[in-house]
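Aim 2, interim progress: modelling of the LLZGTKA7-bound target.
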Amino acid sequence: MTNRKPCQLILALDLETREEALAMLDQLGNSLDWVKIGLQLFTAYGPDFVREVSDRGYHVFLDLKLHDIPNTVAKAVQSIAKLPVELLTLHASGGAEMLEWANKARNDHAPDLNLLAVTVLTSMNESQLRSLNVQATPEAQVTHLAELSLKAGIQGLVCSSLELPPLRKQFGPDPIIVTPGIRPAGSSADEQKRIMTPKDAAAAGSSYIVVGRPILKAPSPAEAAEAIRAELT
Ligand SMILES: O=c1ccn([C@@H]2O[C@H](COP(=O)(O)O)[C@@H](O)[C@H]2O)c(=O)[nH]1
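Predicted structure of the complex, ligand included:
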């Protein structure tokens, strides 16, 4: 028995234009509490778009996957602290010093912001890790990077739901664990390699699942989102 909160759905709002994105949010209405703004819309519309989504009442997850020298990442966290963002990603592979500097900037400027360390992208499998000269399995590499990140003080992790059992066993119920690579049964995996259904991800201990194309490309995005939410309860 754990005191873990119920798993929540985050929509990955990966669309081309502001107009398309806002129309999608209009369609989804009450099916949604959380919106992830990623590189596509942030590079096109920047902080104003973040404020616009937040002004509509959504919790905002800004998925910029920061990865640079410690000073540059810390300064970026300081800038993002001025925005209505509750979750922000950075790459764990930037290393302990980068993570510590980012966390200090968060503590100094945005203590309500939760930083999430991206471990191994869900689009990667073991052979892709080998091509980067990483000899570990995805599970071992995720666990290693998770340990590094949590030791550096980072509040949460991004990984595949497949890695949830060992992570929850080692780190317990407290770390926020966000899992993309979610595919309802029978839907296309696209380029995602380490996938799970919403139901299984929730049961395995995901704090939040991230879903993009299975909702965005569905004939009825609102029905698709509702069906996914129903799997989480
Ligand atoms: O390891 C990761 C980290 C982030 N993502 C992001 O999640 C969504 C997934 O979109 P789908 O359309 O559901 O595949 C996307 O914005 C990625 O940038 C991830 O997939 N894997």
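Residues 8-232 form a domain with the TIM Barrel fold (CATH 3.20.20.70). The chain has ten helices and eight strands.
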